[in-house]
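Intended use. Records like the one below are meant for learning the mapping from a protein sequence to its folded structure. Do not use them to infer anything beyond what is encoded.
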Amino acid sequence: MSVTATGPQAVAGMLPTGVDGFDDVLGGGYAESHIHLIEGQPGTGKTTLALQFLRDGNTRGERGLYITLSESRNELLAAAASHGWSLDGIDIYEFVPPELSLDPAQEQSVIYTADLELGETVRMVMAELERVRPTRVVFDSLADIRLLAQSGLRYRRQVMALKHYLSRNGATALLLDDLTEYQDNLALHSIAHGVIRLEQVAPQFGAERRRLRVYKMRGREFRGGYHDLVIRKGGIMLFPRLVAAEHREQRPLGPMLASGVQELDALIGGGLDRGTGTLLLGPSGAGKSSLALRFVTSALAAGEKVLMVSFDEVRHVLLRRAAGMGMDLAPHLQTAHLALAQVDPAEFPPGEVVSLVRRHVEQVGASVVVLDSLNGYQSAMLDEAFLVLQIHELLSYLNQHGVVTLMVLAQHGLVGPMQTSVDLTYVSDTVLLLRFFEAGGQIRRAISVMKKRTSGHESTIREYRMDSRGIRVGEPLHDFRGVLTGVPSFVGTSNALLDSRPDAKR
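Structure written out for the chain above:
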């Protein structure tokens, strides 16, 4: 069948879904002239998904038909209007069985049998299909057919008959099912060409999370696993699961990204290598975010593009804090070299964060990405156990694109033994550790490089300070022992610590 595509390019033998990213998940789109089972409990987005499918066909000059047994025509029009859509050009057939019409002329003097009810329903649906002759069909919902059939065998046979009819007439159909009787629904998996399930999970706090999974799609490869989605004004936004193995092209690597602080660059072996991930680890307030800002400022000064994803700090506070250390980011926001995305962990699914990062790397050309912090990213996940796997995929993807990735992770505690909620040191190429320690009646900070895969680095521990002059790094703390424990002992004879006075000379 030949159509004129006005949206994403159609693939031979497949029909676009009308949902960004979904064609990629399905390996091209819905299979032409086949039926697809769309499963999901009420509220998961089945109707929205189906309407986008019909609207996409309408823009391509295809005839679309929505057969509804569960929602009224007015309800469908209202749902479309909430997204700013018009359903002009799409046929809507609202099926009302005679016994539900409340019309006395339609009432029967004898009790309806299951055969009569089901047969009447099927005949009326077939008559509408014959009249419209659609290319795209949505049947909402199978639960009504299941109830009328009253047995699994008769239900399956009716769906089989519907399948063969649609196939003979070259129609591509979505059959919606609300999973009210899941045990019977399993029989349809073998009938349908494709099976797609929508799910909704309500966490203890924050917005509900929706996701999609493709159970089967005959004759082709598809992207398995769960894919996050959100429903906003304008329809469904789907975020395909990132598979780093699909992005193995190795981009040319440039020179190291230096911080511009001589002592800090000496500590980390000259700078951060391109195509590597760096973990900034330490207690809250130790200066991890400020350290990331130092590398960001250095990259911006060199004309590079940077993406900062902030989970924990609001935009105006971050900008004011950076300006207080002599790092004014406002001009770079105006030139679009810096993108500052403030993410609410309670509202954003992880898939949307990954999509945001990919868009800035592939379309904008960001060469530095900052995730501040992974504690907030972890809070956005439904299952924290999979944070390491998702970060591993994201890091692999960014490394293959030659991006310098800075990840901030706060440890629990302030001094003494520290713990992290998740161990990401093994997926990181470089680990910078920050610590508080007490000396001379003052709280001070120390920095050290615990790991760097790509080059040599100092094994020393240096003092680290943040003030109005920016980031300052002192000489190695040779005269102290036990700095990383937070309670060091002074074993030297000289005082090599940084002066705490803002106007003091080094």
